[in-house]
Amino acid sequence: MPNGRGERDATGPHAVPVPSDVQLRDGSHMLIRPVSLEDKALLTRLFSELSLETRYRRFFTAVREMDEARFAFLTELDHHDREALVAIESVSGAGAGVARYVRIGDDVAEPAVVVADRWQRLGLGSVLLERLTSRALEVGIARFRGLVLAENQDAIRLFLHLGDPISRAQGRELEIEIVLSEPDGLAVRLREFLRAVGTG
């Protein structure tokens, strides 16, 4: 069934994820849906609400503005090898967070999540990562592999509790890999790690 943006809502490796509504710990309601080409203004506003520290934790540098190349990377998706989900606050219509992955191998993808500072610690990062993990499993992604700043000790400690992660030092960063499972298992702990990465 078309969803109003010319996309078809369904499940499976070649379908666009179905939008869903969630409630945060403070009672706020969010719509979680796939990012689309029309989301440049939404993402611009979201980016402007990130503190310099949050930007640094997400991009490993204090990015001050989004250029066209970065916007293209964030919005030009095939919903298979490249997926991104945005959370939109129901009352204001403002973007509150984004979770995304990019496939970097047959069954492995690099994940990322960022939540605007005002919406942190309300469970939004957890919800976004739960949806992203489920989507990754649907399209045959079995592992997430990503970089973490070596100074981000909270995130590293959380990752070490995931079971049996593989980590490799790369200068000021650590490359960490984890095998995915459904959100009621290992992915619950994975989302806590990625939330820590996104919030510092």
Provide an overview of this structure.
The protein has one domain: Aminopeptidase, CATH 3.40.630.30. Helix content is 31%, strand content 27%. It has 6 helices and 8 strands. It has helices at 40-48, 52-59, 68-75, 124-138, 153-160, 186-199, and strands at 20-23, 29-34, 82-89, 95-103, 108-115, 143-149, 166-170, 173-179. Helix 4 (124-138) crosses helix 6. Residues 1-10 have low confidence and may be disordered.
Short description:
This protein is an alpha+beta fold. The protein has a single domain (20-199), classed as Aminopeptidase (3-Layer(aba) Sandwich), CATH 3.40.630.
Key structural traits:
single chain; 200 residues; alpha+beta; Aminopeptidase; 6 helices; 31% helix; globular; disordered N terminus
CATH architecture: 3-Layer(aba) Sandwich
For the secondary structure, the number of strands is: 8
H/E element sequence: EEHHHEEEHEHEEH
Strand line-up in the sheet with most strands: 1-2-3-4-5-6-8-7
- Tell me about the biggest sheet? 8 strands, mixed
Strand content: 25-35%
- Low-pLDDT stretches are 1-10
Distance between the termini: 39 Å
Helix content: 25-40%
Which structural category do the helix and sheet elements fall into? alpha+beta
The overall pLDDT, averaged over residues, is 76
CATH topology: Aminopeptidase
